[in-house]
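=== Given protein ===
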Amino acid sequence: MGNTKEIIFAGKKFLMIDLTHPLTLETEGYPGDPELKREVFSDIHETGWHHYTHVIGDHNFQPHFDAPSHQNLDSQEKGAEFFGNEFFYNPAIMIDLSNSLEAQDFDGIKYLVKIEKKHLESFSEKLNEVGAIIIRTGYDRWLEENRKHVPENLPYLTREAAEYLASFENLKVVGVDSLTVDPVGKHESHQALRNKMIVESIVHLHEIPSDKLSRFDLQTTPVRIKGATGGPVVVHAYCSL
């Protein structure tokens, strides 16, 4: 089954692109995070019905969202329930930095590690017009191949880049194809973006047509478990045809 499909929605034709990746027991998470576990609650051969229990943690899947409580000591009352309808469906742009001059080759996959303010400033006019942004570094390819992660090599936003995005009040969603928006041991980008929905580990971004990057619609529908520091999120891009 492919990741793209032409659909008709509200009488209009769209190319729908699934930006998620199936979660499996073998999915590589952030090193040291809890691994996905599956337990059998009911066996169909014994009871006539099958029921699994999955233990996945708040952040060990792709994609996932971060709640303000994840890395902000003063926002512990703002769990996954913080996000309302205004975060679920927004006009969006994607900034593709996978072939930028600073992108590096890691075992055959080229991606940008350090996302700086200078990479974003030329898009200021567009950023004022949309409610969501996705930044593609090229790490989506790494995720799709389910390679082991090296924390020091994960793409991230500098504090200045995160503060720049935070300055756009209309922006509700900041998405990336990395496991995190901060370098190892830092929390500055999470803190700068505390009032945005941070969506991490987005994949299949190379399937969004190049002529649609400057405007498409983005669905980011979270599973809102009260008090959770994050959780699964359904991410789809809708490109008008």
